[in-house]
Write a structure and sequence with these properties.
Length: 82
């Protein structure tokens, strides 16, 4: 019984790790799309955040800064010449 519980715990740990890896992958993918939209379009943050699946611009901006390292508007102004 104990070995079954341990095996179950290991399975849960792997599942949890996979879950977080998938969430991170999806978040990075969304921010890559957002970067492309910021670079290639003149769309506002409301439009871009909506296009990548956020209903709230503030949440999008926080997630963008956490993953990219700067705010969307700072990123756009810094990348506008490239």
């Amino acid at each position: 019984m104990e070995s079954q519980l341990r095996a179950g715990g290991n399975r849960w740990t792997a599942t949890r790790a996979e879950y977080y890896a998938r969430r991170y992958y999806v978040a990075k993918w969304r921010m890559n799309v957002a970067c492309r939209l910021l670079r290639e379009t003149g769309g506002g943050l409301t439009e871009i955040s909506s296009r990548v699946g956020y209903t709230d611009v503030a949440s999008f901006s926080r997630a963008f800064k956490a993953l990219v390292g700067q705010s969307p508007s700072s990123w756009r102004s810094g990348k506008s010449g490239t």
